[in-house]
Amino acid sequence: MNREKVIFAFFIVLALTLNFGFFLGEIENLAHHNVFEFFAAIVVSMICTVLKFGDRTHIGALMLATSLVADLQLVVAAMIWGYGAQISVDGVTPEMISSVVSLSGGALLANVVSVILLMVETIVVRR
Question: What residues does each domain of the chain span?
């Protein structure tokens, strides 16, 4: 078994579970979404992206692309949250939380696609 794939699999599943934990709950209720879990999901997602930079295979490029999509959505969501928490006079509004959770859902989908691609790669390599 390839150690690099095992490490990537660990981090992508960790990113998936952290993102799912943040995503779950009422979309506009700030109490249902933990900011620390959200930022942990960002950090782990970025680690996944770094781990895929050296992969020169076609499926590795697809996994890198899905990791980059997840990173982009999570960073934009963090910018919206930061704007609401630090700059906006109204604070974090339900509309802002809805946008953050929505973008987090897109990143969750990108992470699911990465996990599926990893499973496909594992099955194809074994045969």
Answer: 3-124
